[in-house]
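Researcher: If convenient, please comment on what follows.
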Amino acid sequence: MTDDLALAGDLVREAGLLSAHMLHDGLDTVHKTSVSDVVSAADHAAEDLIVARLRQQRPDDGLVGEEGAAQPGERTWFIDPVVGTYTFLSGLPYWCSAVALADSDGPILGAVYHAFADELWLGGRDHPTTCNGVEVASLVDTPLAQLSVASYLHPATLPDVGAREPLLNAMSGAATVRMLGSGSIELAAVAAGRLGAWVQHDSLDWDWLPGVALVTAAGGTTDVLEHRGHRWHIAGNGQAVAEIRARLLV
């Protein structure tokens, strides 16, 4: 576990620094499904870096990358080389590089590197969540009304009442709402108590699993449920997660 965690930390730090250098030098970008759904040369280069290292050092492990890496294995590394590409390309600070290692029982570890802040987040089974080597305080039960909640709501989702109404129900119970544009940074912030809770529908594994490992290793709770045609993902302290779940299901 320690060796895996150290490797994960090296991978996300190297990927994040590579991406930052490429952004400084100028990047070609391609739009995928919308103006805000973009991929850059940095996404591909950073994923290639991580994949090459893993194939060399963990050849029997599986790989799933946002930019197309795929390889079967009993354990699987989930790779998001640039989490928050739109904010990354816009010159905003809320982007990171993230990986998770998982097996049939769920996440083994998560690693997130926030290059702008030079913060390396690590955590997993039998390893408490740390930021730059300093253990974060354990999360304690706190009412949602006393907490911020982080999420994401794309304008194209607004007409979908099955997504819009449950999310608004959940948000309405919180003290305030924040949307930073990078799920892994938000989940790391939840693990550290900087944000209170997190809820989003239809999150992809590479967006979800690194943060799950961090929140769980910080004493928090996560939940995934199907409701009104969407798969909802929730993270935070136990009380807040239970309240969000109840509000989603109204």
Remarks:
- DSSP finds seven helices and 15 strands in the chain.
